[in-house]
Amino acid sequence: YGLLLKCAGGDATREDISRAAIVRTQFYQRAGLLDEARQILDEATVRLREDSGGGRQVDDALAVVTLHRARLDFHVSAFSEGEHRLSVLLEETRGELPVELRSHVYVELAWAQLQLGRTRESVRTSELVLRLLDAHIHAELVARTHTQLGFALYKESDYAGSVMHYDRALRLRKQIGDSLAVARTLNNLGLSYRALEQWNEAEDSLRESLRLKGSSGDELSLAASLLNLAFLLLDRGQLDEAEESARRCVDIGQRHSHPETEAEARGLLGEIARARGDHPLARRHLTEDLEICERTGHESERLATLRRLAQVLLEDGDYEEAALRLESARGLLSE
Fold first, then answer.
1. Is residue 314 a contact partner of residue 295, using CB atoms and an 8 Å limit?
2. Considering the entire predicted model, what is its pTM?
3. 148, CA 20 to 30 Å: which among 11, 55, 59, 325?
4. Taking a C-beta distance cutoff of 8 angstroms, is the pair 135, 127 a contact?
């Protein structure tokens, strides 16, 4: 509040302007007023560029505002815009930013590259961050970087490399004492173990993730681990427990108005019904999943569901309808 008063009175430093804009943006973002949040950061950017004082073209105050503006881009999935913003920032500063701030920029850039499907670029950017930072001094940022590397390598099907980086992130987050971050890392670790068919390690990681998330009260985060555990149980033929977990996720998704969670849980229920040989029930669940995806734009789940539904239709001998579903899936891939 004091910073805002100083800004209003014209007595603010560049750092005051930067910090005040970020604080105001965070309030607006939490209230869901994203247009207002963008406007605040854009106005601060203009003011800081106009009043450079003859110093560096982009100083730390302006760089921090630019970083938060890119994060706001990512919040609405505008990854190309955010990546461009950060790339220009790095070009303009040419290594003049402090190491920690520059590393924050690289971490966000790596996240954008990952979301845009440029996985190898993301890996190289993340590896650069690890060369810049000391894990003893910047434990949280190094942990996040290892997590992003783990995710990138998972997408590259390098599951052993993924486990290595998730394990390093896990050890750092345990040292920091952030139990929810530990739980989320355990969830990711469980997925990599599952891909390696290390079933016991996968189940242990996911159940420990559930235990920690249950204590945090974050039900949507808990649902993510619950779904992953349910898929693992399906792999192992433990259909009753898998179904119970999936139904809990449907309930969580509905109570929290989170259609993505409900859609993924209904897709899992369709897989469980198919495993039991109940194809009419499988069709019903998968069709409900597909309807939610089409309504909300959950494209990755929609693609997976089209393939699942086509498989059920093929097994039922409904070849024409299966072909239509596969054609829709191919159309999504080509977009």
1. no
2. 0.82
3. 59
4. no
Say how far apart CA 30 and CA 77 lie, in whole Å. Answer: 17
pLDDT digits (tens, 9 = 90+) for 213-236: 988 888 999 999 999 999 999 999
Neighbour tally for 93: CB within 10 Å: 20
Residue 18 has φ and ψ, to the nearest 5°, of -65, -50
- Reported as a single tens digit per residue, the pLDDT across 39-79 is 999 999 998 888 765 556 678 999 999 999 999 998 888 88
Rounded CA-CA distance 206/290 in Å is 27
Contact by Cβ (8 Å): 106, 125: yes
| Helix, strand, coil shares, percent, the chain, to 5 | 80, 0, 20
